[in-house]
Amino acid sequence: MTLTYLDLSEEQQDLLRDLSFDGHHLVTGPPGSGKSVLAAQRAALLALTGARVHLLTRSNLLRQTLAVHGGVEVGTVHAWIHAWHRARTGEPAPRAAENWFDWPELFTLAAVDERTEPSALVVDEGQDLPQPFYRLCRLLGVSVTVFADECQRITDTQSTLDEISAALGDCARHQLTRQHRTTRPIAALAARFHTGGTAPVLPARTGPAPRLRRYADQRALVSQLVGHAERHPQHTIGVILRTTRQQLSLYEHLERTAPRLRSQVYVGAAAEGRHRTLDLRRPGIRVISRASAKGLEFDSVFVPDVHTDSGDPGAAALRMTYYVLLTRAREEVHLGYEGDREPPPVAGIPDDLLLRAV
């Protein structure tokens, strides 16, 4: 369901009013502060001015969740760059390292691009895009509004807020402070993994404590997931795993055990078909990767492979990853592992923050 302006909090409404239609804007806020909802609202408002508006994300799965009306074109950054390049040269944009582009060649083309059609970009999860993308936008002369949180940078091609501002040039900054997604117990556990400055204020809404469970094998995990889905038939359940192999193995096990649940799996590498597109209108189990989790939310979140993270639990990259994973949940968090010992990311977390399941 798409939220309307009147559904927004006072802080969110004030922010939309403060965003002028001209220039570049960078909006920051913690997980659950409504950045994706506001990105959609911002795009719709810009479209009313007559501009050709594109609402862009890095993630194809996040793109599927964004519902915008009023002539806004929703797509991925990769698709938008290819379309721009093809319209001028007849060819897709040249690729380079890390599945991105030959940026110097794109800069050269942008410098001589004489098209002057009014256009605007709204970018969600902008911290996951490389700095050259923002430089390209500046060269093209398009107005850009970026929604970002640098405490959620878990991709290889990422930008800090300062890097985004520097690449765009004259960029006004705006900040959201309140999060509206998670419960207080989930937010308190997520705060253990927060990096950077002061952690967001804990919400007042209460709920079950996050739980940690040891799984003897995949059958134990499947049994818990099936039971949880049957007890909560109207809930969305996100199972977030590290690798595609884990995703497909779990999905196949769920299909054999409980086909009636009609579980879904999203594989970013899939070209098309049921593994590439999810039916986001119905509840149930969705098996996704960590890389695809950004910007999404679920009633319940399961992260059953904590044992695969054996690195330094204090490392910023690992902390950011768990901060993102935990803050996808609206109501419940279930962490799990295999083996005899609690994995480093959760070992030592007190029971009042992370309840050990029997």
Automatic annotation (TrEMBL):
Protein origin, superkingdom: Bacteria
Protein name per the record: AAA family ATPase
The species this protein was found in: Streptomyces rochei
